[in-house]
Specification:
This protein has 541 residues and is of the alpha+beta class. The protein contains 15 helices and twelve strands.
């Protein structure tokens, strides 16, 4: 046995006092009462009482890893600088440190990772110009397109406040009144709703952003991450088999892969579109319930991300990591995507509540040393920066003739978006309907994927009240007659009664004011006035 062990550090209190006895608290005699002066014990037990912070309302179950981003210097055959001046995307040979957190969305912190649920895919880029957070999901669309509906959606998908169970009728009750969700439901209820693990899973920023170049010219952009390991999903039966043995299989898979040196890698791709109205499209490019057809707007490789180090402490890093869609660097800007606008307030606000007002001072969230934060913000719980305002401890305001912080140089040509319109509450009219892309997706699935999809929805609807059953079949039949017919048969629903329902009040009728779809599964839509655009699907084998 090797007795040449390195000297072990001495146990101390959090004040740095050496602890010579960690086995017993102070008491009056062996069996007497403890005293109030038990500082060591009080510090230890009160910190233990506070070891947990509020879990995330969504994305509570998660795991993470460190790695790096490496740009290629080109987007397709064009230099990146043609589209964006963001240094992190332009500087070839520079590896930017990143932290990625994967998660499920609806379940609590200890819920199984086999759940049928979107997966979070959040990346913190620690660039030389400060942090850039890209917060997205594995699927490229979302359930809703207006942030004001987000609390309603999550409440409907979370456990019933009376039964404390996730009830299918609550999910479909919301969806049946929100046809924009049909596209996402078609994805989630298919095998794509249960990724096999985090390594074999796509990522997407979902929302539309803007690239801005040195001339102040903007392009609309969507971000995507394609796994070099391939894409693999699970059927419900496969997921149940895994869950019988392991509730954290995806966390285990990611950790063990990195430990053995099998570093997961994704190709970082973008879709680009000019920043104008695009009247030729039958959907609004800012609508996050729609995909940009990849035959019209191809995925263009821009760089790669690699994960090569596990956290040293899951709580300090993975749980306290905090992301926000408003955390952008120069050269990347906001679009008017209503979900992005709402998320930009909500994400950072929830981190201030969950972790604390100084969450950005934590090492996992703080910018890298080259981009160390210097602000005049001060105080608040757990503030610890000694030099937050640039070395002049007397000047915590700006401007000042006496020193302190000063503004950074302005870009040569900034981006100025023209905004004009009447203030009001608007539903998008820039869409043919909310059924087309869901139907296209159904028709691009392979037969085994369709079978899994219709069985999952049909069995769910068996547990729903009749009004919800009929409306859901009406929706699905308008996506594709085969889709609705097969679900109705599995659920035991009278298809003719469902088809006789009128359109939802105030919602755009499918296929131009309610005309019936004339295509069959595997055929293109023939409704007059609608141009059909098909999309390729990524392999799910």
């Amino acid at each position: 046995m090797n007795t040449d062990r390195p000297e072990r550090p001495t146990l101390t209190t959090r004040q740095g006092h050496p602890v010579s006895d960690n086995q017993a608290l102070r008491s009056i005699g062996e069996r007497g009462p403890a005293t109030l002066e038990n500082y060591q014990f009080i510090e230890k037990i009160t910190h233990f009482d506070r070891e947990r912070i509020p879990e995330r309302v969504v994305h509570a179950r998660g795991t993470g890893a460190h790695g790096y981003f490496e740009p290629y210097g080109k987007i397709g055959n064009e230099p990146v600088s043609k589209y964006t001046r963001a240094r992190v995307l332009n500087e070839v040979g520079v590896r930017t440190p990143i932290f990625v957190r994967f998660s499920t969305v609806i379940g609590s912190k200890d819920s199984p990772e086999t759940a049928r649920d979107p997966r979070g895919f959040a990346i913190k880029f620690k660039t030389v110009d400060g942090n850039w957070d890209l917060v997205g999901n594995n699927l490229k669309v979302f359930f809703i397109r207006d942030a004001i509906k987000f609390p309603d959606m999550i409440h409907a998908f979370k456990p019933d406040p009376a039964t404390n169970r996730q009830e299918p009728w609550r999910f479909y009750d919301f969806v049946s009144q929100s046809p924009e969700a049909l596209h996402m439901v078609t994805w989630v209820k298919s095998p794509w709703g249960i990724p096999a693990n985090y390594r074999e899973m796509e990522g997407s920023g979902v929302n539309t952003y803007k690239f801005v170049n040195d001339q102040g010219v903007a392009h609309l952009v969507k971000f995507h991450f394609q796994p070099k390991q391939g894409v693999r999903n699970l059927t419900s039966a496969q997921a149940a088999e895994i869950q019988a043995q392991e509730v954290g299989h995806a966390t285990k898979d990611l950790y063990e892969a990195i430990e053995r040196g099998d570093f997961p890698e994704w190709e970082f791709c973008v879709q680009l579109m000019t920043d104008d109205e695009h009247p030729e499209l039958d959907f609004d490019p800012l609508d996050d319930t729609k995909r940009w057809p990849e035959d019209k707007f191809p995925l263009l490789p821009l760089g790669r991300i690699v994960l090569d180090r596990n956290p040293d402490n899951v709580f300090a890093e993975t749980e306290q990591s905090a992301f926000g869609t408003g955390v952008l660097v120069d050269g990347i800007d906001f679009s008017d995507d209503k979900m992005l606008q709402g998320r930009t307030l909500s994400y950072s606000d929830t981190q201030r509540y969950r972790v604390g007002p100084n969450y950005l001072q934590l090492p996992i969230n703080a910018p890298q040393e080259k981009a160390r934060a210097h602000t005049n913000q001060q105080g608040g719980a757990m503030a610890y920066y000694v030099d937050p305002n640039g070395g002049n401890r007397h000047i915590n305001y700006e401007p000042s003739l006496m020193g302190g912080l000063q503004e950074a140089p302005k870009p040569a040509k900034d981006y100025h978006q023209w905004v004009e319109g009447h203030l009001g509450r608007y539903q998008t009219t820039r869409t043919a309907d909310d059924y087309k892309q869901a139907g296209e997706r159904y028709r691009t699935f392979e037969e085994w994927e369709r079978e899994e999809l219709v069985n999952n929805i049909g069995n769910d609807l068996k547990q729903c009240p009749e009004p919800i059953q009929l409306r859901m079949v009406w929706h699905l039949w308008h996506c594709d007659p085969d889709y609705g017919t097969r679900v109705a048969k599995i659920a035991g629903i009278d298809l003719s009664r469902a088809k006789d329902l009128p359109p939802l009040p105030g919602k755009p009728a499918p296929h131009q004011r309610g005309t019936s779809p004339t295509y069959t599964s595997g055929q293109k839509e023939e409704s007059p006035g609608l141009e059909t655009r098909s999309e390729e699907t990524s392999g799910a084998k």
